[in-house]
Design a protein that fits this description.
There is one protein chain. By secondary structure, this protein is an alpha/beta fold. It folds into 2 domains: 17-48 and 295-390, Aspartate Aminotransferase, domain 1; 52-293, 3-Layer(aba) Sandwich (Aspartate Aminotransferase, domain 2). It has 11 helices and 15 strands. It has helices spanning 38-41, 50-60, 73-86, 97-114, 134-137, 163-172, 197-208, 278-293, 296-315, 342-348, 371-390, and strands at 17-21, 24-27, 32-35, 90-94, 121-125, 155-158, 176-181, 211-215, 239-242, 253-257, 321-327, 330-335, 351-352, 354-356, 360-363. The strands form 3 sheets. A 7-stranded mixed β-sheet has the order 4-10-9-8-7-5-6, sandwiched between helices. It has a 4-stranded mixed β-sheet with strand order 1-2-3-13, with helices on both faces. Strand 2 and strand 3 form a beta hairpin. Helix 2 (50-60) runs antiparallel to helix 8 and helix 9 (296-315) packs parallel to helix 11. The longest helix is centred in the C-terminal third of the chain and has 20 residues, at 296-315. The model has no long low-confidence stretch (mean pLDDT 95).
Length: 391
């Protein structure tokens, strides 16, 4: 039978999952796998979490969807919770991270119009990733852009974690209105900037009257040991974008704004058919409540430190391991060679992770992970790497 799905992904591994429980997934043959990927930082509460399941079932029995032409009380509740946790002021709900970043880009355009700038530019970082729509492609790294030219021209690209380059751009371009940055580059290879990098960007944005837009799609909702990664630097961006873990697998995303980035849209300037409908907001509220009640942000910080420390100790004798780095439960293991052939071995050893930037093992376990599971994760990753390096 021919494949009716467009071939947009790398060769999919010959496995399908039938069910999950907590940090574990089970394939159709019944084999168990420790989930160190979480659907790429999505299922932070693990699989089949009772609070999320109950919220979805209860809401599905009432109403799934109405329209944003009517009031949606659950959407208002979710917005208030996100404002409380983030320190920002307003929320717009959509369906995925790329849509949230498109919203942020449109906010920067409206901000530019308010300043009478007709050809506004946004500073973005080399090797950054912000989505695959035609707008966000222009802001993302070149590996995914080839073949889709031309892009929106108004992006100024500078190296990540390079403040002199950002300051030079400020002097060179008079039409910059915003900086769009990931607190940690995920797709780019789990690169963590130096201390005070975000705080310095905040200062540069203030000096130049730019918006500071922080892409928290992968880092947000507790992943790095804070609700949002920018909180490690004790700053407030003007705009943040979130998705992935917000719904624990239910498609929901948001763009939050504060101060001069608020009230720039008037009715009809932006919208989303499915954004913030009753079902997804019910699931997201259950996610936020559970993370708070079970103190999972604190667990992410604690287990992240444990994993990085013990992965370094376990892997230190392997010369092919260039680095182990991470913040919270966002961890990268960099090897000295292309590593996509590691993926089948991960399945053999019953552990899930993914390769990014060609040679970085990206490890994104659920926020619910305990020490026993962390030890198993280390053992299984080590076994897969050992077999790969010996093959």
């Amino acid at each position: 039978m021919s494949n009716a799905i467009m071939p947009t992904y790398f060769s999919q591994l010959p496995i399908a999952f039938e069910r999950g429980k907590g940090a574990w997934l089970y394939d159709t043959a019944g084999k168990e796998y420790l989930d160190g990927l979480c659907g790429v930082a999505v299922t932070s509460l693990g699989h089949a979490h009772p609070a999320v399941t109950a919220a979805i079932c209860e809401q599905a029995a009432k109403v799934l969807h109405t329209s944003n032409n009517f009031q949606i009380p659950l959407q208002q509740q979710l917005a208030q919770e996100l404002v409380r946790l983030s320190g920002l002021e307003q929320a717009f709900f959509c369906n995925c991270g790329a849509e949230a970043n498109e919203t942020a880009i449109k906010i920067s355009r409206m901000f530019a119009r308010k300043k009478n700038i007709n050809n506004p530019a946004i500073v973005v970082m080399e090797n950054g990733f912000h989505g695959r729509t035609m707008g966000t492609l222009g802001a993302s790294h070149k590996r995914i852009r080839t073949g889709f030219e031309p892009f929106l021209p108004e992006f100024v690209r500078v190296p990540f974690d390079n403040l002199p380059a950002l300051k030079e751009a400020a002097q060179q371009y008079e039409n910059i209105v915003a900086v769009l940055v990931e607190p940690i580059q995920g797709e780019g290879g789990i690169y963590i900037p130096h201390a005070n990098y975000l705080a310095s960007i905040r200062q540069i944005c203030d000096q130049n009257d730019w918006l500071m837009i922080v892409d928290e799609i992968q880092t947000g909702i507790g992943r790095t040991g804070r609700w949002f990664a920018y909180q490690h630097d004790n700053i407030l961006p003007d705009v943040i974008t979130i998705a992935k873990a917000l719904g624990n697998g239910v498609p929901i995303a948001a763009c939050l704004a504060r101060g001069k980035a608020t009230n720039l849209f008037s009715p009809g300037k932006h919208g989303s058919t499915f954004g913030g409908n009753p079902l997804v907001c019910s699931a997201a509220l259950a996610v936020l409540r559970t993370i708070e009640q079970e103190k999972l942000v604190e667990n992410a910080a604690r287990m992240g430190d444990y994993l990085v420390r013990n992965l370094k100790e376990t892997l230190h004798s392997k010369k092919a391991v260039v680095d182990v780095r991470g913040r919270g439960l966002m961890i990268g293991i960099e090897l000295d060679r292309p590593s996509r052939d590691l993926m089948p071995l991960s399945l053999k050893h019953g552990v899930l992770f993914i390769i990014t930037a060609d040679k970085v093992i990206r490890v994104l376990p659920p926020l619910i992970i305990n020490q026993t599971e962390a030890d198993q994760l280390i053992t299984r990753i080590n076994a897969a790497i050992t077999e790969f390096l010996n093959s």
